[in-house]
Inverse folding.
């Protein structure tokens, strides 16, 4: 369910780091809790983001929720699929519905995030 | 440590949990907010049929020789106009004209009225009515005796008809009959909170699990979906039906809430009448109006509303409208702006977003 090569935040984002670039998304647990997602608001490429600060938002029918940056850096790419098909976030949150790619400015931050096993224990405990 | 009160379950709690519905604290009740998803449930009701457990709603019975007089005195609508077997929507007001609650009044007989009230207001409503009972009538708190299911949608009648000998086609809108459903005594009302055709049935709690299952079986050929409070909210908003705590509360009068049609000032004295007469004479200051967002942003409850760049009111309910493919909302505005065609801005997460006031209801079913 939760890929071993991802790292996870307490706010239910994930990041996969490859070659200094972090691909960021929200977890399956997050999309389940949100319900039907109808809108995703993301920063523009080039924007600077800071770990723990708001990166954008996702809106479900019921509510709007912040997405927090799991790592600091510069946004290099946003997922073009989500503007017209936000429901993809409900279908494939760990894959096709990634949110943004970030060029890491402090790669060491990743080590402080949860592993898949930690995250699964965390959401188990949260329930 | 302060004690956290346990959430109140309905008689169908185990059914919801077994079906893996997402449960939430709704005014102290442990209720399903969704089963399969709000969008799918919403569309099932608009296009076919859905069933809701609304057993958290309260019931109050008023009986006795002066039951009609008491009911008329504590509500805004004209009880003398009701016939036995007929129901209407009404306000229960404080002396100052604000809402205690909004309720459905059913006339069972000349000396017996059955009120359906909001879950989180039921104890307050009961005390309020009792405090005004200077009549030869008895007020009874009856919520424990009833579960309530709402079967709603264009196929609601076909679904429910399979389970009852009562001729549902003969029950006019906002009328009801005392009959049976699945062999059990039931009050069957042609009412709803979705803007769609449908029925609300009041049944014994101990039978509710079995009847819930029978309704799902009966509706299977129409693709019936069990629905949660999330879809109930988006459905009622499209139909511009008020929700206590959002459009109405103790600080809002029915005239402000665009509910003048349930206020019968000419019927004689009732609790809150004097305040409403004064408010009408002085002129309303604010009124409820519907709006549509221009673009992608979604207005949410409590967001600030600007007209010509000036703070003018607040959003009472805001959401995507699944059947309309728009983002809609209701808000209070100064009366001068409370008409269709007024451009406004809603502050969405710190950014002004364009919207326009529109005619309501947003959704009207084709009859």
């Amino acid at each position: 369910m939760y890929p071993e090569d991802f790292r996870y935040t307490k706010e239910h984002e994930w990041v996969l780091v490859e070659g200094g670039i972090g691909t960021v998304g929200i977890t399956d647990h997050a999309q389940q809790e949100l319900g039907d997602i109808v809108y995703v608001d993301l920063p523009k490429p080039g924007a600077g983001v800071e770990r723990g600060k708001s990166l954008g938002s996702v809106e479900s029918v019921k509510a709007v929720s912040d997405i927090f940056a799991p790592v600091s850096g510069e946004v290099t790419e946003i997922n073009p699929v989500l503007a017209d098909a936000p429901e993809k976030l409900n279908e494939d949150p760990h894959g096709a519905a990634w949110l943004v790619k970030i060029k890491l400015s402090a790669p060491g931050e990743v080590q402080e995030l949860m592993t898949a096993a930690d995250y699964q224990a965390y959401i188990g405990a949260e329930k | 440590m302060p004690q956290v009160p346990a959430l109140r379950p309905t008689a169908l709690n185990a059914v919801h949990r077994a079906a893996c519905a997402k449960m939430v604290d709704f005014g102290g009740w442990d209720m399903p907010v969704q089963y399969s998803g709000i969008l799918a449930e919403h569309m099932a009701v608009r296009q076919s049929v859905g069933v809701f457990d609304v057993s958290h709603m309260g019931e109050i019975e008023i009986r006795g020789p002066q039951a009609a007089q008491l009911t008329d005195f504590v509500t805004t609508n004209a009880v003398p106009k009701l016939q036995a077997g007929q129901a209407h929507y009404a306000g229960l007001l404080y002396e100052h004209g604000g809402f205690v609650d909004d309720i459905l009044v059913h006339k069972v007989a000349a000396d017996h009225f059955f009120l359906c009230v909001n879950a989180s207001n039921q104890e307050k409503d009961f005390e309020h009515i009792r405090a005004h009972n200077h009549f030869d009538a008895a007020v009874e708190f009856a919520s424990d005796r009833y579960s309530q299911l709402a079967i709603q949608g264009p196929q609601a009648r076909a679904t429910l008809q399979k389970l009852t000998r009562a001729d549902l086609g003969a029950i006019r809108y906002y009328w009801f009959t005392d009959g049976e459903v699945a062999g059990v005594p039931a009050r069957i009302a042609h009412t709803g909170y979705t803007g769609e055709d449908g029925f609300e049935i009041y049944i014994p709690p101990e039978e509710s699990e079995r009847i819930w299952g029978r309704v799902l079986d009966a509706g299977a050929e129409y693709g019936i979906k069990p629905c949660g409070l999330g879809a109930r909210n988006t459905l009622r908003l499209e139909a511009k039906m008020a929700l206590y705590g959002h459009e109405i509360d103790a600080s809002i009068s029915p005239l402000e809430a665009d509910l003048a049609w349930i206020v019968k000032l000419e019927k004689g004295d009732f609790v809150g009448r004097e305040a409403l007469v004064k408010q009408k004479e002085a002129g309303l200051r604010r009124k409820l109006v519907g709006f549509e967002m221009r673009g992608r942003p979604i207005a949410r409850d409590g967001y600030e509303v600007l007209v010509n760049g000036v703070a003018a009111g607040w959003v009472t309910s805001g959401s995507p409208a699944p059947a309309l493919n728009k983002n809609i909302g209701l808000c209070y505005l100064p009366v001068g702006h409370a008409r269709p065609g007024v451009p406004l801005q809603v502050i969405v997460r710190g950014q002004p977003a364009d919207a326009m006031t529109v005619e309501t209801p947003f959704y009207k079913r084709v009859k």
